[in-house]
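Exercise 7b. Backbone tokens:
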């Protein structure tokens, strides 16, 4: 199965090979809390940027290991780029996936504020 997501204005679109997650990470760090992110991590090979590469800007903070990618037109951050255990991953903001039923997805709290 494949699911798709986008920024608010539609300039940035992506797809992910795989099923929608049954649970997502809800982090309380200063960045995630302010933006209300609900994140799922997928191997970079399962992620395809369909359109909008030229519209993407980036933001790094704290340890500067995650490139938070956002649309320069509408400001929405649909995904981030990073590594887990030395492997490239994409952190998908599941709020940017229209078909995701947010009420049915379990939220796993992460104390990112303590990192």
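Sequence design result:
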């Amino acid at each position: 199965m494949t699911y798709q997501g986008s920024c608010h204005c539609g300039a940035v679109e992506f797809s992910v090979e795989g099923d929608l997650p049954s649970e997502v990470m809800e982090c309380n760090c200063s960045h995630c809390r302010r933006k209300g992110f609900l994140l799922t991590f997928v191997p970079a090979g399962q992620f395809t940027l369909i359109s909008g590469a030229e519209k993407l800007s980036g933001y790094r903070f704290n340890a500067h290991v995650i490139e938070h990618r956002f649309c320069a037109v509408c400001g929405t951050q649909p995904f981030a780029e990073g590594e887990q255990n030395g492997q490239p991953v994409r952190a998908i903001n599941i709020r940017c996936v229209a078909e995701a039923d947010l009420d049915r997805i379990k939220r796993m709290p992460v104390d990112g504020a303590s990192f």
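Instructor comment: The longest strand covers residues 87-93. The chain is about 5% helix and 45% strand.
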